[in-house]
Amino acid sequence: MGVTKLEKSYGGRTLFEDVSLQLNPGCRYGLVGANGSGKSTFLRILAGDEPASDGTVNIAKGTRLGVLRQDRFLAEDANVVDLAMQGDDEVTLAAQERDRLLEQGDALGASEIDERLRVLGASTLRSRAGSILAGLGIPVAQHEKPLRQLSGGMKLRVLLAQVLVGRPDVLLLDEPTNHLDILSIRWLERFLQGFEGCCVVISHDQRFLDNVATHVLDVDFEDIWLYKGNYTVFERDKAAIIERKEAENARIEEIIAEKKAFIERFRAKATKARQAQSRMKQLEKIEVEEIKPTSRREPRIRFVPERASGRDVLGSEGIAKSYGPKRVLTGVDLTVRRGERIGVIGANGLGKSTLLRILAGKLERDAGKITWGHEVKIGYFPQDHKELFPNPKRTVLDYLWDLCPLEGTSFVRGELGRALFSGDDVEKNIETLSGGEAARLLFARLSVEKPNVLLLDEPTNHLDMEAIHALAKAVKAFEGTVLFVSHNRWFVSELASRIVEIREDGIVDFPGTYDEYLAKCGDDHLDTSAVLAKKKAADAAASSGSKTDLGWEETKKKRNRLKVLKDKSEKITASIEVAEQRVAAIKASYCEDGFFERTSSTEVEKLHAEEQSLGAKVEAMLAEWEAVETELGELKAALGES
Length: 642
Hints:
6-stranded mixed beta sheet, 4 domains, alpha/beta
């Protein structure tokens, strides 16, 4: 896929122009830029959902596109797994054609299509769709249920699953991590890392882009710039390029100033007139490269407490909450001291937002006790912004002024200006605000309310990178106490001094940073594949019963088997690593500049065949490893080992 001299303008505003890019298979492009810069517009142009103002999109014949359209509606009465399976339209259409032929009594034609369905892997489609749904955090128990029984966030996961099931050649994903928890994001990272086609993904999750992107497409300066490497490399390289351009411009302007000074000084003197004329000609040839203004703007967020709270901020005992028969919180005990920044993490649906809403006084608890400390003043940022916008017809200016009626208009406009509302923006009705604008208005609210305790529920949702970085700086500088829920791992890693993970069987309260927590409990405990494998092993161990009194011979036999299996597990793991490294090397070669121009089609086909073969071997080895780990779990349980 590629674009040639692409341009997009709205009215008098140019988003980008004269853009020519080649997007190659095996490469994953992180598409970044400020909110409103044109990222989603560019993705829609690639998908054919919106026309360009000028230029062309070039897609090889037969290329299958997989596009995540979050505004697409699915059949509410269809069951979840069937909707996911529809993503593989080759199998779906072939199956429909076979059924039509059978109805017409054409058994021969139907049998030919059956052979095609076999080649397409139709027999494994349901299990493949189920595996992807489970990886994205949709429980197996919900796979056969109608879509209408799922929450809005879960429906969007079904949309994403449908796209991934389709096995497209090109994936175009606009904010796929929205509504995913950390566990599901980790699974999606692994899926995309193994994806063999071309992928273009918009995300404001820096850790996700660091783990997934092989390249970055930056929409800025009315252009789209291609950088090689992940997001962290892109940030470094972009800063260096801008610094070099500014330094070069400064040097050229210095030369121009010197020549102008010489001309002014000596142009009237006959002895120097020729030299002055020469410098005038030189000046005419000198060009200062225009550096267009960046579309990136960083809000100036600040949270300053009106007064300090007491040392003991919060004590809770036995907080419990259920929604009908579903228990989401059980016996939550917390002690919070002034100055702590607590990151609340865990899978979706386990009660993270519920806990914050209970602490904020927005939701009644079923049981338990909450004691707030001396001089505590709470500031709450809800995941659903509408909670704090009771009158969506109010203007931005009036909304904030209502919260500080004793202040003058210059103060209120100043606070709004810090949140990037300037000029006529302050007269916008709240109902017309984008998600990012609504979030910035709530940050302005917290700024004027001056709380000493912040309860932030998914505050990075809808924010661009600049706003996320500004928020992180503001929270770091805040001299109060913070409890926050976020699926943005960079944000959690930057801020949390303590981690509370909510699990189905209670909470884990860890007195350290996010990275220290992962180092202690294992990074893979937040990896869906590893969690599923561990669960299978635990289930198998549980089904074998508790430790029994084994005879000496039986114990020796099991210990020998245990050693054999451990060695086998290590060998399989090493083999998988070697194969994955070779696959990564092949994919990296695809991404090298000019690779497809200098490499013969025969050689490309050989590499592709090798990649496919290794991929199949890795799948087989993973299945074998899972079987070994399951048996290891059973043996350890029988021997009473952990």
